[in-house]
Structures are given as structure tokens and as C-alpha cells.
Write a structure and sequence with these properties.
Elements: E1 2-11, E2 14-23, E3 29-33, E4 43-50, E5 52-57, H1 79-90, H2 95-112, E6 114-121, H3 137-149, E7 152-159, H4 181-196, E8 203-204, E9 207-208, H5 216-224, E10 231-235, H6 239-249, H7 253-260, E11 267-271, H8 277-286, E12 289-292, H9 294-299, H10 307-312, E13 316-319, H11 329-344, H12 357-373, E14 388-391, H13 403-413, E15 419-424, E16 427-431, E17 434-435, H14 438-455
Parallel strand pairs: 1-4, 5-6, 6-7, 7-8, 7-9, 10-11, 11-12, 12-13
Antiparallel strand pairs: 1-2, 2-3, 4-14, 14-15, 15-16, 16-17
Helix pairs in contact: 2-3, 2-14, 12-13
């Protein structure tokens, strides 16, 4: 048994001093003692929080950082012009590259305070679309990277079958994503075997990519598969997507989804950027999770999620690092909150009257991330996975602060330097701010990235 003694910890009941958390050999929290005495051999930390789960990631895009920030020669750049760059980039990547990039991104997630990740894995085939001999070759590489870095993994094999809502065929870089419903079923079975051989806390979900990439008949079938698994899907991400869905299906994306499917707590809907007030309120009441990726959404110029209305109506959300060009737990929370302030020209928009913005953001992201991953985590409680992060705000010059004020300072004025230690299902992977395998993972990534740049 391992024990952590926290000078202060955020428990479901609130802040508590002198908390001793015992972790069993299987990586679960065995006991939480308040007002405890420090035991011999306990690890002592100043502040202990439930670690966040990253509910949306495409790890291979980590290696694109800096490659899509040059303006095109004509017109305005957008998500769609960025996507063409991404398609060309991914055709350079082989299985070794994908594993090395994923390991580096997973390491950075943990150093930022994420203990687990939902990898929205849509890269299945060779360049040109031919399948690998092992249909799960690239999924196995993602699992190997998670194993090497110790992050908790929810593997989300992605179904991607068409190039638009009108059913046009896939082309170019999209061919690396391609499956029909039968080959996707075979891929899911292979992914189940991959995850079954991984750590005890690893598991699988399903990910129909979007209404533009999945025929409505396929979505209806997938929604009935494995009803106990998380189901993730992009939706209402882009204005062009809204127009095409309206034209082909006769309704806006979220309007259509809520009218045609029983959207429940197993659903995690990614981005949800372009919803009208009625859709925002209706989604909030389903208890599904909105998977928000504010840093990527800002980088791509997507738009601003209506967080104020959504939270006011009881909506649940989690955060994801999506394109992974800047991996930061507090960076995502800060960007989300500041986007609301800029839109509304008001301060502390998402907090309740008299409440703390940092606490509200962190509490929602903790619970929503765990729900989105289908992971028994998100709070410091007996029986849950020991997904824990220790922070020291003094490392960012934030001295003498306590409870919610301290958390506000961490979210809005802190930095990654505040993260001292992290446990993922009891695996102590970050120690004094550094991943235990950083040297090897970073060296492999450097070699990989150098080779990719030579191929550009």
C-alpha cells in the first residue's frame, strides 16, 4: 500500500486539511482519512486534487505544432484549409512515428495534470487507404504508447465512411480513416483485444466521427452497439457543417441528433460550438457531456461555446487537448472562461453568484472528464481509481493562498510548474514535475520528428 499525506486536499465534501490517501496494489483509493497524522513513509504534498481526464485527443497532431500557422496565398484561412494541411501531414507518418508521437503527447498530458485520455483514434490504414495486415496495427501503437507512459487510456476507434453529409466518397488523406460498417466492427473487436491485454484501467469506447463522416444508417446501428460503452462524436463544430446538414438532413446537426437519437449520459459530444439557445438548453438537460477543446477551437477559429447558458441549465462538460499543439489543463479551463468574458464583456461569467470561477471550472471538468471516459475517477473517494495530482502554487509565485482562492490563482495565474506529482490509477508517473520516462520518450520523439521534417 502507498499513502499520500496532503496538507490540504479537495474532497467531495470540500477542502480538508491533513488528508491521508491510501492507494491499494491495484491502483484504487483504499481509504481517505481526514484530520490524519502523517505516517512513516508517507509522501507529503502541499495540495492534492483529483486529476483531470482528457476527453478528446488526436495525438499524431502533436507533431504538427507550428506547421499550420502560415497564412495561405488567397482568401481567409479556416478549419477547412487547416484540414488539408493535416491530411498531407498524416500521409508522412508510419506506425513507428505514430507510437513515438503518441508517447510524447501522453507524457506531456501527465506533466500538465491529466491522468487519463480518450484517444479519438481515426488513423487506421496505410497512406492511400490500404489496410494493414493487422487491422488494429495503429490502435496497438496507441496502446503501447499509453503503456510506456502510464497514462490511463480510453481507446476510441473512429468510424469514418464518407466525405460529407451527402455521402460523397472519401479522398486523399481521408482514405487513411476509411471503414465501412463491417470492417469497423472487425476493428472494434481487435481494439477490444488490444485493450484487454493492457492495464486494468484501460478500456474502449465507440466514436462515430460526425454526421458528415458517418451515414445516418450507420449511426443508428452504432448507437445500439455495446450500450455500456462511452460514445463520442464531433458535432456542430463548423458553420459549413451546419449548412450542409440543414440542406441534406433538413435540420441543424444538434437539432437532428436530439430528434433522432436517445442522447444519454454515455454520449460525449465534441465541440458543440454552433448551437442555438434551444439546442444548448436541450443538450444540457440530457446529462450527456459536452467535450470542449477551447485551445484548439481558438487556434482553428471555430467559434465560442455558449458555456454560460449551458452551465446555467445544468450542463456537464469536460475538456480535451484535441490537436495537442499546446497541452495544458489550466490552459483549457482558462481559455474557456476567458472566451465567455470576451463574448459577453463581463467577468467571472461561469461561476455561480458569490462563487469561485476556478472551483466551478475544475469541479465540472473533473466529473465530466471521468464520465466522458467511462472511468471511475474524478474525485478523491474510496474505491475510485487513484487519479491524483499534487500541486504547489508557490512554484508560480502564488504564496499564502488557501482553498478556493488558491484554486482560482492556480487556474488563472498558475503554470505547469505548479504540478509536482501525478498518479494515474496509482502509477506515480510525475515526480517533482517530471515524467519518470521523460528522457527516453523525448529522445525517441526528437528522432522521429527530425525524420518527419526531412520528409516534408
Amino acid at each position: 500500500m502507498v499513502a499520500i499525506f496532503a496538507e490540504t486536499a479537495l474532497l467531495p465534501s470540500g477542502w480538508s486539511p491533513d488528508v491521508r490517501v491510501a492507494i491499494d496494489a491495484g491502483g484504487r483509493i483504499e481509504g481517505v482519512e481526514q484530520g490524519a497524522a502523517r505516517g512513516a513513509g508517507d509522501m507529503v504534498v502541499p495540495v492534492l486534487l483529483p486529476a483531470l481526464s482528457n476527453l478528446h485527443s488526436h495525438t499524431f497532431q502533436r507533431a504538427m505544432a507550428g506547421l499550420a500557422e502560415r497564412r495561405g496565398p488567397t482568401g481567409r484561412d479556416s478549419f477547412w484549409t487547416w484540414r488539408e494541411i493535416m491530411y498531407r501531414f498524416l500521409d508522412l507518418l508510419d506506425p513507428d512515428d505514430i507510437e513515438a508521437i503518441a508517447a510524447f503527447a501522453f507524457m506531456e498530458m501527465q506533466e500538465a495534470g491529466f491522468s487519463a485520455v480518450a484517444e479519438f483514434h481515426y488513423l487506421h490504414n496505410r497512406p492511400g487507404g490500404a489496410p494493414y495486415a493487422d487491422r488494429g496495427e495503429l490502435a496497438a501503437r496507441i496502446a503501447a504508447a499509453a503503456d510506456a507512459t502510464g497514462i490511463g487510456l480510453t481507446l476510441l476507434p473512429v468510424h469514418y465512411a464518407q466525405g460529407g453529409v451527402d455521402g460523397r466518397p472519401l479522398k486523399g488523406g481521408q482514405l487513411r480513416f476509411a471503414n465501412d460498417i463491417d470492417s469497423f466492427g472487425a476493428l472494434v473487436a481487435r481494439c477490444e483485444s488490444i485493450v484487454g491485454a493492457a492495464s486494468a484501467d484501460a478500456h474502449i469506447g465507440l466514436a462515430p466521427h460526425s454526421l458528415r463522416a458517418v451515414p445516418v444508417s450507420d449511426l443508428a446501428e452504432l448507437a445500439g452497439w455495446k450500450p455500456n460503452l462511452p460514445l463520442h462524436m464531433h458535432i456542430a463544430e463548423q458553420e459549413a457543417e451546419l449548412a450542409e446538414t440543414q440542406e441534406i438532413l433538413g435540420a441543424r446537426p444538434m437539432e437532428w441528433l436530439l430528434a433522432n437519437h436517445d442522447v444519454t449520459q454515455r454520449w460525449c459530444l465534441i465541440h458543440c460550438t454552433h448551437m442555438n439557445p434551444e439546442e444548448t438548453t436541450a443538450l444540457a438537460r440530457t446529462r450527456a457531456i459536452a467535450g470542449l477543446c477551447p485551445v484548439t477551437e481558438a487556434n482553428l477559429g471555430d467559434g465560442i461555446f455558449d458555456g454560460d447558458r449551458y452551465v446555467e441549465n445544468g450542463g456537464q462538460f469536460g475538456i480535451g487537448s484535441d490537436s495537442n499543439i499546446a497541452i495544458s489543463t489550466i490552459g483549457e479551463l482558462r481559455q474557456l472562461d476567458y472566451s465567455q468574458r470576451l463574448r459577453d464583456r463581463a467577468r467571472v461569467v461561469l461561476a455561480e453568484p458569490g462563487g469561485s470561477a476556478g472551483r466551478k471550472l475544475y469541479d465540472l471538468a473533473s466529473a465530466g472528464g471521468a464520465q466522458g471516459l467511462g472511468r471511475r475517477a474524478g474525485s478523491i473517494e474510496t474505491g475510485k481509481w487513484a487519479d491524483l495530482v499534487a500541486i504547489d502554487p508557490a512554484r508560480a509565485g502564488l504564496h499564502g493562498l488557501t482553498s478556493d482562492i488558491m484554486l482560482d490563482a492556480y487556474v488563472f495565474a498558475g503554470s505547469q510548474a505548479c504540478v509536482t506529482d501525478l498518479w494515474s490509477a496509482g502509477r506515480h508517473m510525475i515526480r517533482q514535475g517530471r515524467h519518470v520516462a521523460r528522457d527516453a520518450v523525448a529522445a525517441r520523439y526528437k528522432t522521429c520528428l527530425t525524420s518527419i521534417m526531412d520528409r516534408l
